[in-house]
Amino acid sequence: MAGKKKNLSSRARPSGASYSASIGAGARGSAAVAGVGNKVSVGVLPATARTAEGASAQREIAEIKRLLAAIVAAHDAPGVTHRLDEAANEMAKEEPDKKKVGSWVKTALELAQEGEEFTETASKIAPHVTALASWLGAYGAPLLSLIGIPI
Fold it and tell me: Residue 128 is inside which H or E element, if any?
């Protein structure tokens, strides 16, 4: 934290008190959160993230589905499973449409975000989403921001 200045506040401050934080150096590779009492889960991926190709992209979708199963069960969110099944069905084709696959996975992740457990699950699915996003190319970029990876 050398070179970084921080002014952290507590809930015990009187009303009208100033809450502020500043970063005195570059913040690349960092996470900053404003507010009091926020719960944050920050994951860091290595610069050499895995990449997927055809059949392994199909396995990544299956693993994402497996890891999101708890959220689906807890929040009665069958839409997540349906979207991931559609993506898997598209992947089974000889020439899968990357735009469709990306769209279905994106919608599944958006629906899964409604569950409180998603923050914790996001770090577990991150390597799989990253690998899938690499195969999807431009259609995979929106998936990364949904799991907290800046693009």
Answer: helix 118-136
Cα 124 from Cα 32, distance rounded (Å): 21
Give residue 39's identity as a one-letter amino acid code.
K
Nearest to 38 by CA among 102, 110, 119: 119
pLDDT confidence of residue 98: 94
- At residue 47, the pLDDT reads 43
pLDDT tens-place string over residues 12-47:
555 665 666 666 656 555 666 766 777 766 655 444
Q: Which DSSP state fits 137?
A: G
Tokens of 1: 């934290």
Query: CA geometry: angle at 17 spanning 12 and 22, to 5°?
Result: 100
